[in-house]
Amino acid sequence: MSWPRAPRPRKAGHRLETLNTEVLELYNAGQYDRAVNVATKALHTAETTHGPEHPDVAVSLNNLALVYHAQASSTWPSRSISARAGSCQNLRPEPSRGRHQPE
Prior knowledge:
This protein has helices at residues 8-28, 32-50, 55-71, 78-86. It has 103 residues and is mainly α. Helix 1 (8-28) runs parallel beside helix 3, helix 2 runs antiparallel to helix 3 and helix 3 packs antiparallel against helix 4. The termini are far apart. It has one domain. The longest helix is centred in the N-terminal third of the chain and has 21 residues, at 8-28.
């Protein structure tokens, strides 16, 4: 008899939380270029794991927008990312490590 494997979303959820934590640490350290790369990975992980309308996608989008805003990048306007994040349901518009925070 073998033990059942943990479901994939749980493992991916841990990776997503780790990535979002790293984004916030890089953001706080002012390392915006690196934070953009990690935030993009977090967004991709959230979208492939949960789909485009999940609250974790909104958290990742919000974190990416905050980094772009801080770096004053014109490459990808943070306002449009924030608007997309706001379209997901039941989220507070604040930085997060990726845990769903209902209002």
